[in-house]
Amino acid sequence: MEFKHYSVMLRETIDALAVKSDGIYVDGTMGGAGHSRQIASRLSGRGRLICIDQDADAIAAGKEKLKDFSDRVTIVRSNYERMRQILEELGIASVNGILLDLGVSSYQLDTPERGFSYMDEGALLDMRMDCRNPRTARDIVNEYSERELFRMIRNYGEDRFAKNIAKNIVLARQEKTIETVGELNEVIRRSVPRKIQVTGGHPAKRTYQAIRIELNRELDVLRDHIDEMIDLLADGGRFAVISFHSLEDRIVKNAFQTAEDPCICPPEFPVCVCGRKSKGRVITRKPILPGKEELAENHRSRSAKLRVFERRVVREEE
C-alpha cells in the first residue's frame, strides 16, 4: 500500500517556520514527507534538513519523495526523543527550525494490518508506530491489570466509562485472549450505554487513542523532550508543533508559555530574583486552526492545532 498522508495545515506550518534558504531544519515526525518536501524545496545547497521517523514505511516513502533533494536531506529512522543525539552525531549544534506533526498518520490508520483503527474489525490489535517494538496493543489489553487499564483509558482517552471498559476487558479475557479489533470493540460496546453510542460517535474511539498513546509513549516523549528541543534552536529559530487532541496541546501550550516567562518569583516581588531567563516568545497566542477549505478536504484535520515558538538567545549584557 502506498504511504499516503495528508499534511495538515501545510501552508500555515511552512509560513510559520519562516524557512531560510541556508538554514538547518528538523522534521521530527516525517510521516508522508509532505512538510519535509516543502521545507527542502526552499533550501539552497547550503541548507540542510534532517528528517526523523520511527516507522519503516514512512522512511521508505520519505526516501522516495525526497530523492530530488538528497544533497540537502538526511533521513534517520528513530524517535524524535533522540533529536539531540542525532544532531550531535551529525555535528550540528543548533538549528533554525523544528517541526513536530504529532499523532497517527493517515497511512497508519488506513492500513488494516497496522491495527490502529477501530473500523477494521478483522485486524489484529497492534498500533506500533515502530514495529521493532516487541510489545503491541494486544499485550496491553491482555496483560494490564484492571487498575492499569482504568488509569490509561481515563487519563489518555478521557473516557467517562473507563471503569466499565477496564472491568469488562478483564472479564472478557478470562474467557478468551482479546486479539482483534472486533473483539475489543464488542467489549467496549457492552461497556457504554446504548444512548451514548447513538449520539456520541464510535464508542471505541477514546479507548483506542488511550492504548496507542500508552504503547508508543507519545505524551511522555513530548513532555520529557519539548524543553530540550527549544534549547536546540538558534537565535530566531522557530518551533512549530501540530497537535490533535487536548492532552498534546496542553503540554505544548504550557511548555511554550513557561519558556517565554519562566519566572517563579512571587507576584508581590518588585523584581525577579529567581534568575530564570526567557528563551523567546510565543508566536501563536491562540493556536492556528485549519481553514474551511482544508476541513472540507480532510475531515481528520478538524481537531488539529498549530502552535509556534520563536527562540531568542539572551546575551549576558542584556
UniProtKB/TrEMBL annotation:
**Any one Pfam family match given in the protein's UniProt record, by short name:** Methyltransf_5
Listed A to Z, the keywords are: Cytoplasm, Methyltransferase, rRNA processing, S-adenosyl-L-methionine, Transferase
Q: Where is it predominantly found? A: cytoplasm
Location of the protein in the cell: Cytoplasm
- The enzyme's E.C. designation: 2.1.1.199
List positions binding S-adenosyl-L-methionine.
A33, G34, H35, D53, Y80, D101, Q108
UniProt GO MF annotations: rRNA (cytosine-N4-)-methyltransferase activity
Q: What does this protein do?
A: Specifically methylates the N4 position of cytidine in position 1402 (C1402) of 16S rRNA.
Protein's UniProt name: Ribosomal RNA small subunit methyltransferase H
Give the originating organism: Shuttleworthella satelles DSM 14600
